[in-house]
Amino acid sequence: MRLLRTYKKSIKIEALTSIFLLIATIFALFIYNTPLKNMYDYILNDIYIVNEFSIHMFINEFLMSIFFLVAGLEIKSEILYGNLSSLKKASFPVFASIGGVIVPALIFILINRNSPFLSGFCIPISTDIAFAVGIFILFSNKFNPALKVFLLSLAVVDDLISIAFIAIVYSLDINFTYLIISFAIFITLIIANKLFKIESIIYYLISGLCLWYFVHLSGLHSTISGIILAITIPSKSYTCRKSTLDRLQCILVPINSLFIIPLFAFANTGISLTYNIDLSSAKPLYMGIILGLSVGKPLGIMLFCYLGDLFKFTEKPK
After folding, report:
1. Has residue 93 been placed in a domain?
2. Residue 306 forms part of a structural domain
């Protein structure tokens, strides 16, 4: 994996990340099931950074955009130089993600076809990419490193499909003016890279901040901006030994691994271990979600991987 080759301390960082992830998750679960629950909710949801932008939103929408930028940079490295360097290799995780969307959606629809919850089929189709990577890191010494590239690629495509479905099915209030501005920033970044050969990290980060802002205002999930920005980052250097992509990875990988992933885990695993809700009327809903995720997701991924490789649409990594 190119990221592991370019960042010398990556093994130590991944080990620390797994420890921090576990601590953050256990700590959040502990706090949420004690009298400290109200303080946890207040800090995350009632303290605002700007206007109605809470700390929880800051973590899930801004910091996770950086997470997606790091994931996008790693995928871009693999497409250019590594395990995804041919169309057939690159299409393998794409096929997997399509299967991981279609099969859980079909299971949910089948279970809820006569219920009022049918439009909820978007719930089981997405992968929680941060936790998926976190779980991978916990067991990374048992796995081939190429699996992380597969997982990242699958989860990113999966999330993009999910966001598109949600936008269509639930008719999000899309502001096309801000969407056009976002697209204009994207084109400007491409021109800055390809035509003017700008390699300044500061330039791309400031432009990326503007991109994030307008994507957020457009009504789409702002984490998409991280993937879009990764596409525009120069992968070759004309002035120094390391490319902008490599230098940006060296800066962001420790921040992402040691800060963003554990913080995301802490902010999103505040879950009550006791409940007094009557779920009898919602049985098709929760059965559709549980079976869609736990059965449909792995089944869809494996089935489409198998079919793609069988019919030679894709090339399975060794």
Report:
1. yes
2. yes
**pLDDT at residue 124, as a whole number:** 94
Say if 106 falls within a structural domain: yes
**Can you give the CATH number for the domain in which 110 is found?**
1.20.1530.10
Cβ pair 36, 270 in contact under 8 A? no
14 pLDDT exceeds 90? no
pTM reported for the whole predicted model: 0.90
What pLDDT, on a 0 to 100 scale, did the predictor assign at position 151?
A: 92
All residues at 6 or more sequence positions from 24 whose CB lies less than 8 Å from its CB, including other chains? 262, 263, 265, 266, 269
Q: Which stretch, 128-137, 148-157, 277-286, has highest mean pLDDT? A: 148-157
Q: How many domains does the chain have?
A: 1
> What pLDDT is stored for residue 4 in this prediction?
40
